[in-house]
Amino acid sequence: MGLSMSEPLILRVARWAREIPDAPAYTFVDYADSAEGARHTLTWAGADLRARALAVRLREVARPGERAAILAPQGLDYVVAMLATMYARVIAVPLFAPDLPGHADRLVRAYCDADPVCVLTTTPALEGVRAFIDGQAAPRPKAIVAVDTVSDLLADEWEPEPIGLGDLAYLQYTSGSTRAPAGVEISHGNVTANAEQLWEAFRATPRTSTAALWLPLFHDMGLIAIIAAPIVGGNQAVFMDPVAFVMHPVRWLRLLSAYDDVFTGGPNFAYEYTASRVTEAEKATLDLSGVTVMLNGAEPLRGSTIHRFSEAFASCGLRPEAHTPGYGLAEATVFVTAMDRDLPVRVTAFDRDALTAGRAVPITGPVAGAGQAPAGRVSELVSCGVPTGQDVAVVAEDGTARPDGEVGEVWVRGPNVARAYWRDEERTAETFGNVLAGTEGTWLRTGDLGVIHGGELYITGRIKDLIIVDGRNHYPQDVEVTAQEAEAAIRRDHVAAFSVPGEETERLVVVAERSRKAEGRDPAEVEANVRAAVARNHDLRLHDFVLVEAGAVPRTSSGKIARRACARAYLDGVFGTARGIVAEGAGA
Prior knowledge:
This protein is 29% helix and 24% strand. By secondary structure, the chain is α/β, with parallel strands linked by helices.
């Protein structure tokens, strides 16, 4: 069921409102006042009506091409706000309510950078939004509109206007894992293309398949998977607040159990977290046989996590093939590659030394059992599959394509690739509009290192996260796995490895959160075990090891370890250590 690229995605909402007006479009399951979750549903007719009404209100305070920031909690009002901005040809800035903990700095920087002329929020969040705006140096918006107070009667005043595929639909602010958040300019053409690419990769059935997720709507994957992709085929999206998931991850699986044909997704840590928290008694209530796709789409992907999750919920009817590793980034709207939904996860063991030297040399024979930590000098990488409706190349520093089996930077080309960063010509020039020798058109430089092996993409790491000691490259995720596997006192996937400047070469630092098993342990013993493992597996001397409390290692809004932020915190003494960039660490 192809979507005409001459038709912006938003126009499909009006089509479904005509053809299947009473069919459910978006359902928000609210756990704020109900342990079982109270369901609130918008039909396609209702979604279209509310979006058109809000579009009329929007155009009273904003002209086409101006920005409207969405500072609202997760819920149906957020969905309506996104749809309304598209109808009104106003550029949405999907952010979040100021009371979301842990991301205040990101909100301030993104809001001020976008410089919106109006703000969309909800009545419960209104007071907090006003206080937030009063505290900013940015010009005050013309209006703050509470989406839930806009009368549906305004929809009668809406007059449709032509929407160009090249018109900007929204600014997607990156999670800032390596540097300050930047607003990616996502056009109507970009979101239309990427929604269809995701929908086709999942092989969704029109009007039948259901999306059930907890991802935040301000995040690129949440926005596309929950709001945009279901519009392609008139499918239903059922979602909840991320906090509801964190409090009780079984809620996510209960949502999935309610449907016979359902797709979902989340970052790797969510699968690790869920497998460790859901009890045997809770598993007895689940039926996951209807899950067709469980996209795992945020770095780093762990084969051990995928295996552990599949084993944990096999008794619930979960097919191991349902777990679908993928790759994406905001600059490509979000979705780039994924394994076929009916193929098993492919985990390949590569020679670690060869990989850090730029060659993917697979290791045959016994190395580590399925789902176990890689043994010795081995890197286990998870295949991210193949692209849908776009091109992917692995490129050398001179701008020529690398042959299969050689590591290089991942470049992407397709109708889903954005054109620029908002008001940032320098970063735009670095990232977009690159020319690959022997090809037509322009390419996106992702900043990710990868390799094509067996026709599939494997991500090896971020260029800016590489640890270079004595002229040798090391991938931080390899060091992080070594550290967490060396000690039960360390929380899995809550480890950051990075380098700090030294007098002659960079120095390796590992910051790790303590697990519950750390209680009563001698920190010196934990450190000694990590140092020995890093030396043995990587030929590296650890400059410093810091064991911190749970929650101390910074993460991005999408759940990735923010290594550069962690390095800054380390150097600033945030972890109780003011070591300086060339000071000797313990045991160095």
